[in-house]
Automatic annotation (TrEMBL):
PROSITE patterns: GNAT_YJDJ (PS51729). This is N-acetyltransferase. Pfam families: Acetyltransf_CG (PF14542). GO terms for molecular function: transferase activity. It comes from Streptomyces diacarni.
Length: 106
């Protein structure tokens, strides 16, 4: 029998510089980030051992990318897991920050 999927709740803990994923009120995973104007650099993603293999990391990555897109920002995928998620979901590629996209005052 398939285990019942519990809902993952997400929050942006700006004071700690991380997005958090919780299942049943328990911290299941985090994605650390640094912010610059218009850019969110995701530096590390970690899922708690008790929640590994449940799609928490992917759901957290998806949530971050949706939030960044809604805010009109870009991401800098420093974290290897987060970078791989974007490669595997190419629809998010336009959200990746490229320093050559900046408009310099001319």
């Amino acid at each position: 029998m398939a285990e019942e999927q519990q809902r993952i709740e997400f929050s942006d803990n700006a004071a700690e510089g991380r997005y958090e994923a919780r299942i049943g009120g328990t911290l299941a995973g985090v994605a650390q980030y640094l912010r610059a104007p218009g850019v969110v650099a995701v530096t590390h993603t970690e899922v708690e051992p008790a929640f590994e293999g449940r799609g928490v990391g992917g759901a957290l990555s998806h949530h971050i990318l949706q939030a960044v897109q809604e805010a009109g920002e870009k991401v800098a995928p420093v974290c290897p897991y987060f970078a791989r998620y974007i490669r595997e979901h190419p629809d998010y590629q336009p959200l990746v920050y490229d320093k050559h996209d900046k408009h310099e005052p001319g």
